[in-house]
């Protein structure tokens, strides 16, 4: 392991000093510019940690689905899902969380770190109802730091570039994956056939 990097000194020697802009953009509150990014975002990744390890899971709804309560507080509704509740289990054990906000067509992303708690306060449940259905709960996040991430990763990946029809990538379906993982004990074709209706009927 002669090429392993395992000290902070080695890392700093490899990368050099952070630029001034990279340091100035981080603040311990939600600047109005950052609030505008959150209001425009329909998708975020929630990262948590707990006794069972790390977890990163997607969250999405119409733009602004994560509400800015004030410059130090975010509110994230927890919608129906598969009931694994990995993120929520972690939050109960360790309140530290991180959010990565993405905005379609925009290269910059927003990173927010903070501490979370889970609530079922009636006024919040009613506030975040969609199609007449309240969320399962609401995650309240106290912000420790926020900063935007430059667009290089989005630019390199061409994430928002449309794929030409002739170059559509073939990826396995959810049913095919389940069938493969269970040595065909799981009826993957039936799962794929029923999935669209099940998803539409349980979206909220």
Automatic annotation (TrEMBL):
**What are the boundaries of the signal sequence?**
none
Task: Write down what this protein is called.
Answer: Pyridoxamine 5'-phosphate oxidase
Q: Which InterPro entries match?
A: Pyridox_Oxase_FMN-dep, Pyridox_Oxase_N, Split_barrel_FMN-bd
Which NCBIfam families does the UniProt record give? Answer: PPOX_FMN_DR2398 (TIGR04025)
Residue intervals of the Pyridoxamine 5'-phosphate oxidase N-terminal domain = 31-150
